Amino acid sequence: MPLVEIRDVRKEFPARSRGGSPTVAVDGVDLDVEAGEIFGIVGYSGAGKSTLVRLVNALEPATSGSIRVDGTEIVGLGERSLQRVRRDIGMIFQQFNLMNSRTVYGNIAFPLQVAGVPKSEHRKRISELLHFVGLADKALAYPDQLSGGQKQRVGIARALATSPKLLLADEATSALDPETTQEVLALLKQVNTELGITIVLITHEMEVIKTIADKVAVMEDGKVIEQGPVFDLFSRPQHPATRRFVSTLVADQPPERALQVLRERHDGRFVTLAFRDPAVRQSQVFAELISRDVAFELVYGGIEDIQGETFGNLTLSLTGDPTQVEAALGAVRALVDVREVAA
Ligand SMILES: Nc1ncnc2c1ncn2[C@@H]1O[C@H](COP(=O)(O)OP(=O)(O)OP(=O)(O)O)[C@@H](O)[C@H]1O
Fold first, then answer.
1. Residues 273, 133 share a domain
2. What positions does the domain ABC transporter occupy (predicted)?
3. Beta carbon of 46 within 6 Å of any ligand 1 atom
4. What is the CATH number of the domain that holds 13?
């Protein structure tokens, strides 16, 4: 049984003005998040990502559909029962949402108070959490004395205080610089592997997905347009929006601007080879060209490492006898996908 099971979920917000039309923020979404995984949801601003996660912890009620969290149907559930479900769900935010008038200790104590954990148990639990997030010496600091990365660590400690099964992360690294982003992502990975907590994270950055997610769903206009294991989605994106996201990390064919310059420099036939199968070595492919006296230059592209598997697109300029070029490409097609680059 998935930890989170979403079926045909829809969320409609009423029109903001008289005569206006309602906004369908989430439109018929189906998703399964298995226990123990890191599930990424990626999409541009307005795609409906935040609304979807807010439905999962019932900060907003769904208009229709079904959402099961750890087996409990939460759509239509009463407030009292929802509070019990929410106790198993932690959440972290882009702007950290810490209480500035409370110390780090006080911020982490807050969910413990709400959950009715006796005060005598707070000190030990908070100390454990602060050690885990690497802020053992900051218990008495106030949020405005901390860096962004430290504030998010406090956010994570606070979200973990009541030992949730599920952690929802809403653009948790979007306000951080690239180096701090990597540190916070590493901490989230630790939350997942060492504490066994399932994580759903939403982001507009493929880098975040690539770094820690196991599975990913792409959202556009309230719908999930594509989902699957991260490697599959990166190496074989189907939908144009997914291709656009993937191209922010992995070069595909050269864009029009680059192509113009490349054509001025190279007069051969341009083809893009997609390397996806780990059993196929680049040297095998190049050997097919060399054996037929086809000269080649790598003009665009690169190879990426996604969770230990490599793939990428290399655009080559080929020169030689056209019949030999054709024959070589025939042999190359047996090894990798070959696409012509439009003249
Ligand atoms: N409380 C609300 N009332 C009315 N419309 C809303 C409300 N919350 C979100 N929306 C609308 O729902 C759509 C989806 O918004 P949502 O915030 O879920 O997208 P998102 O993908 O998370 O984007 P962002 O990263 O910019 O938050 C948008 O058109 C937004 O204007």
1. no
2. 4-246
3. yes
4. 3.40.50.300
Complex ipTM value = 0.95
Q: Which amino acid is at 294?
A: V
Does 249 reside within a domain? no
Q: Does residue 248 lie in a domain region?
A: no
**DSSP letter assigned to residue 283:** H
Question: What are the CA-CA distances from residue 76 to residues 64, 65, 68 (Å)?
Answer: 9, 10, 11
Q: In this structure, are 131 and 195 located in the same domain? A: yes
* Same-domain check for residues 70 and 181: yes
Contact indicator for 205, 126 with CB cutoff of 8 Å: no
Are 170 and 200 in the same domain?
yes
Domain containing residue 128: 4-242
Q: Is the domain of 105 the same as that of 146? A: yes
Ligand 1 mean position, distance from CA 55 (Å): 12
Phi, psi of 237 (to 5 degrees): -65, 135
If you measure from the C-alpha of residue 44 to the centroid of ligand 1, how many angstroms do you get, rounded to a whole number?
A: 11
- Gap between the Cα atoms of 132 and 120, Å rounded: 20
3-state DSSP call for residue 11? strand
**pTM of the complete model:** 0.89
Q: What is the rounded CA–CA span in Å between residue 216 and residue 38?
A: 9
Does ligand 1 have an atom closer than 6 angstroms to the CB of 25?
A: yes
Q: How many domains does the chain have?
A: 2
CA of 50 to the centre of ligand 1 (A): 7
- CB count within 10 Å of CB 200 equals 27
Q: pLDDT tens, 63-121?
A: 999 999 999 999 999 999 998 898 899 999 999 999 999 999 999 999 999 989 999 99
Is 174 buried (19+), middle (13-18) or exposed (0-12) by CB count in 10 A?
Answer: middle
